[in-house]
Each structure stands twice: as structure tokens, then as C-alpha cells.
Design goal:
Length: 264
């Protein structure tokens, strides 16, 4: 594993980038409502990142083919990498907005689920359980933990509610690179995989399906959907491993988790 241990200077830059990414999700929250298009949400986020934060939206022109927008908007049965479009959100929709900001060469990456209007009981439960998968994994993170431990926590919690974990897409190391080593899968066996070390920065971002775990990529080569068209949810934070626990670099004010969790 070629995980990059961050220097004190790099960690400060990661804190700044993480805060900016969190602020984008806070800014966009009141705009996510019935009748708005995901492209309108994209424009608001793009303008805020570029003009207000003097930063760069990492998804724009990323990859092959180049991603055409500045955020990912994944609605209902879309698992991830949904491309903002002129389709309007409707009552009962669930949507993941995934934001990655580059500031001074470093990345902050985070996503949040939004519920439009009144959700179905199934949708509300899926969104809640997926967030719990993320939170339970974060709360357990400490030096000496192994990658399989993170995956096992997410998988066990999702499957205890009869949901399934998407396996083709995962969390990742992050820093000067958008996607660095290691890969953080959201399933696995305790005590397996590489060890987590202080100074590592990475994302945990479980994708949980209400139906089966299988996915497919649409012809645009980006949008990933559930094969059985069941609902899917995802939450994501960028984390810093400390000497005795974890710091959540993308924590929002609305969240109840502590920013720094210590196991000493």
C-alpha cells in the first residue's frame, strides 16, 4: 500500500479544503426542493466554489471521458456519479450531492443525502441507515485498525437492515491527488487488509442499495445505477487519522458527531 502520510503543512491544507467542501453542502441545502433541476444546483455550487471560495470544483473535466459538471447528483436509483441535468426534482425524491473542492492543490471530498418533500418510509429508512453505516465506521477509526474493519462495520450494519453494499465503488486516499491509495471498500472481514496509520487522509463513503447490490454504468460512461432499479443512498466524509483516533475534515455544523474523536 502506497498510502501517503501527510505532513503538518499538508494537513492544514486538507483542513481548509475539507471545510470548503462542507460549506458547499451547507450552502446548497435550502435550494434542494421540488421543481429545481439538478443542473440548477450544479450552477449554484459551481459559482459558489469558483467565485466565493476562490477554489476549483474537482469533478469538472475529471477522468475519461471528462466529467461534464462540477458536482455529482445521484437521484433515487442512481448509486453515484450522476450527471446534473435539466430533470426537475419531484416530491419524494432522494438525491445525493457529492462535492469535491480543490484549494491550494489539496482536495476536500464529501457527500450528503437530501430528501425532497415527503419521502416514502423505505426511502427515509435507507437514507438514515446509510448515514449510520458511515458514522459507525468513523467512530471506530483509530491507528492499528485495518481496512477490513471499516468494511465489516459498514457491511454488517447495512445487511442487518436487509440492505446491500455496493462493491464496485469505494472510498479512497485523498490529498494532492483526488484518488490516492488506499482503496477503502465498504465490505470485508475484521482484521484483514492494510493497517491505518496516523497522518493518512481518506474518505469513507458507503453506497447502500435497498435491493440487490448489483450496479451498471449507463452509456454516458459515468452514471451508475442499481441493476434492479431499487433505491440507493450514500454519505461521505474526508477523514484524517490522528495519533489516537480520527478528525472529520468535512464535518458540517448540522451534524452531531464530534469533529475530533479520540480513543486514548
Amino acid at each position: 500500500m502506497a498510502a501517503i502520510i501527510k505532513t503538518a503543512e499538508e494537513i492544514e491544507k486538507m483542513r481548509v479544503a475539507g471545510k470548503l467542501a462542507a460549506d458547499v453542502l451547507t450552502m446548497i441545502t435550502p435550494h434542494v426542493k421540488k421543481g429545481v433541476t439538478t443542473d440548477e444546483l450544479n450552477t449554484l455550487c459551481h459559482d459558489y466554489i469558483v467565485n466565493e471560495q476562490d477554489a476549483i470544483p474537482a469533478p469538472l473535466n475529471y477522468g475519461h471521458p471528462p466529467f461534464p459538471k462540477s458536482i455529482c447528483t445521484s437521484v433515487n436509483h442512481c448509486i453515484c456519479h450522476g450527471i446534473p441535468s435539466d430533470k426537475k426534482l419531484k416530491d419524494g425524491d432522494i438525491v445525493n450531492i457529492d462535492v469535491t473542492v480543490i484549494k491550494d492543490g489539496y482536495h476536500g471530498d464529501t457527500s450528503k443525502m437530501f430528501i425532497v418533500g415527503k419521502p416514502s418510509i423505505l426511502a427515509e429508512r435507507l437514507v438514515r441507515v446509510t448515514q449510520e453505516c458511515l458514522y459507525e465506521a468513523i467512530k471506530a477509526v483509530k491507528p492499528g485498525m485495518r481496512l477490513g474493519d471499516i468494511g465489516h462495520i459498514c457491511q454488517t450494519h447495512a445487511e442487518s437492515h436487509n440492505y446491500s453494499i455496493v462493491r464496485e465503488y469505494c472510498g479512497h486516499g485523498i490529498g494532492a491527488g483526488f484518488h490516492e491509495e488506499p482503496q477503502i471498500v465498504h465490505y470485508g472481514k475484521p482484521g484483514t487488509g492494510d493497517e491505518l496509520l496516523p497522518g493518512m487522509c481518506f474518505t469513507i463513503e458507503p453506497m447502500v442499495n435497498a435491493g440487490k447490490r448489483y450496479s451498471k454504468v449507463l452509456p454516458d460512461q459515468w452514471t451508475v445505477v442499481t441493476k434492479d432499479r431499487s433505491l440507493s443512498a450514500q454519505w461521505e466524509h474526508t477523514l484524517l487519522m490522528t495519533e489516537d483516533g480520527v478528525e472529520i475534515l468535512t464535518l458540517r455544523d448540522e451534524e452531531t458527531l464530534p469533529r475530533v474523536i479520540s480513543h486514548s
